[in-house]
Amino acid sequence: MKYFYGVLTLLGIILPYMEFIPWIGENGFNLTRLWNEATHNRISAFAWLDVIISAVVLIGFILYEGKRIGIKHKWIPIIGTLTAGVSFGLPLFLLLREIRMDKLKESKLK
């Protein structure tokens, strides 16, 4: 699963930024235009609201689960979620969680 999550983490940052970086090149950091395009129609607004709610849920999950099993550096997937999106933050957190679970299993065997 670590490799699966690792690949998805890479795809989760590369694919969205392949669209966003050219947009920034064309429009600059024009937040008004970004907002207008993101909410241009109901389907765009639907998609953005879905992502925002998913991001809030994910950050709550990262904080809760990260504390529960003692994941170090849980702030990294939170920052990743806020800057790149759920498509990056979720697989990154699951990768960190998988690594932590492996360490917990190893310590129980000793």
Describe the structure using short key phrases.
single chain, about 110 residues, mainly alpha
Structure description:
The chain is mainly alpha-helical and 110 residues long. It is built from five helices and no strands. It has helices at 2-27, 31-38, 42-69, 75-83, 86-109. Helix 3 (42-69) runs antiparallel to helix 4 (75-83). The radius of gyration is 17 Å and the shape is elongated. The mean pLDDT is 95.
Q: What would you say about this model in short?
A:
The chain is built from 5 helices and no strands.
Instruction: Give the helix/strand class.
Output: mainly alpha
**Biggest pleated-sheet summary:** none
Shape: elongated
* Beta-strand content: under 5%
Low-confidence stretches: none
Task: Provide the residue-averaged pLDDT.
Answer: 95
Topology:
Elements: H1 2-27, H2 31-38, H3 42-69, H4 75-83, H5 86-109
